[in-house]
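Hey,
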Amino acid sequence: MAVELNFSPKKKLLWVDQPESVSSLVRGYYGEMKKGIIYLELEEALYLIDIRNGKCTDESLNEYKFNDVAEHFTEPKLMARYHTYKDWRDRGLVLKPLPAKMEEDYGRSPVKKYPGKDFKPPKYAVQGMFFPEDLMTVIDDEKVGRELYEDYWLGQFGTYKAEQRGRLNKLDAYETLFMMQHCGLGLRNSTTSKMKKEAKKRRPDFTSLYDVYEDWRQLGYVLKTGFKFGTHFRLYFPGASPTNEGKDWVHSKHVIQVFPRKTRLLISEWARAIRVAHSVRKTFILAIPGKETKRSKVKLDFLLYHRKKGGIENPKEDKPHFLMWSLSEEEYIGGAELADALKQAKESGLDLILAIADRETSVTYYRVKRIMLPGSKYEYYEIEWEQP
């Protein structure tokens, strides 16, 4: 039976009061019940019109189709919100619009713990030559260059995966600055301030990337370029070595993407980096360095209920499982906005789900989990593809 909806364009209210329709919607956990009447949010009403053959009329019995209802509202990103709502519902799952105020910490956001190990930087009185256009430093002291590489995995000695071919150690810009600040490296043709200036000229985000590099390095991790995987760094856990005592080459299992607060990135480009990492079975880690400035409040969209043993979670019996932020393929996301969305999720005790609707209205979900990195200056997050 079709659901009968009532609509007041002037008040922008949508509700159902026909008893059989009310009973059906109560069982499906739609809307908010008040004195026998179910009041609907816009996405709920549009879903009932689109999928449940809902018939929507005003007090004069004028019929309103999907677009007739939608044009009376000025909701931002309505199509992204609607299609992510629809996709979750179509999977047989329940979701509810986010309340104006979150009332509790739901305690359903487990933190992933990473090991930490203090790194004691080696001290050398060694000189290198900085090549500013390449953002690379060469150390031609063979003994020191080999030790730095084999004992601390700083730079690349010889040739990649063929250390015996060559006698130079090549440091990238992040390794160069780290060694200048912590290991005693000097540059025969530059200073620390000049080197930073040259690096920022070619990479405006150099300082943010270096802050993340230094943060992990001081905790015993090794960071190398993530170029092949479409990210800023690939990550090796404490104890990793390029020589690996004659065994097979050690492969990284994690990559890091740095997303400074001032950066804005097209959603499709951002999601592509995550997909590349997953396609090569690497954990994607998001870093948002820097201190929180003026908070730019992001409006999240839905409380999500998921599956449970023996059935489906629902608002009557269960706590919500996730917070959803509805996004579209064609919009830009900012580092400050994402940081705020993650902060809201943290405060609610729920993991954040990024729901991205593409141009064909297919929806892809990414789950964001907090990382605990002992001694770290910043917060980091694992992002993984989620199949509801």
